[in-house]
Design brief:
The protein is of the alpha+beta class. Helices cover 19% and strands 36% of the residues. The protein is rod-shaped.
């Protein structure tokens, strides 16, 4: 039986590569058991709806290929720690599309890795370009920016609230002065007449 297992992690999860180029994917074994004798690589093809054995690499570096699998196309490299294996694929074609799984055999089961999805295209998509807005030529008197309130600026409430308050206080203090001036003026008028 097949089952995915967290002990086998694969990176990256997705690869988008160009036709005729090469790529590689890594399989990391989190825990090596005594039953572990090597690593298998399989490919699931959604288009062909089949699970295909590609290559097996034992702990001594001996490689066994599946039926109709080119040794020139696929190769496996093993880290000295025996816990990491990388699958290299050359001369990529559309027929290489699919999800690649590393696998180990344990207790009469094939434990599968998390999978790496490979897509092969003739032309890689271009990265999105960021466009900069041209600055406005109209004069700007006061622009409020989304800044925190505690920062002081020309339009900040910390500037105009005290200004308005002090203007109101000045206007309020003018009321008694105006009333007093009016009384003085009236007295002078009465005195003259």
């Amino acid at each position: 039986g097949f089952c995915t297992h967290l002990l086998l992690s694969q990176i990256p999860e997705h690869i988008l590569a160009q036709t005729n180029n090469k790529t590689e994917m890594l399989c990391d074994l989190k825990k090596v058991t005594e039953e572990h004798t090597g690593l298998y690589w399989y490919r699931w093809s959604q288009e062909r709806q089949n699970f295909e054995f590609l290559v097996f690499s034992n702990q001594f570096g001996k490689v066994t290929y599946g039926a109709n699998i080119s040794q020139d196309k696929f190769s496996v490299q093993r880290a000295s720690s025996y816990t990491s294996y990388s699958l290299h694929i050359r001369h990529l074609q559309a027929s290489d599309n699919g999800t690649y799984y590393c696998s180990i055999s344990e207790s009469f089961q094939l434990l599968l890795g998390t999978g790496t999805q490979l897509g092969v295209v003739d032309v890689l998509p271009l990265p999105l370009k960021t466009t900069q807005a041209t600055p406005s030529k109209m004069p700007v008197q006061c622009v409020t920016k989304s800044k925190p309130v505690n920062k002081k600026g020309a339009c900040s409430p910390l500037v105009w609230v005290p200004l308005v308050s002090s203007i109101l206080v000045l206007l309020m203090s003018l009321v008694p002065i105006t009333y007093r001036l009016h009384r003085v003026r009236r007295r002078l008028w009465l005195h003259v007449h």
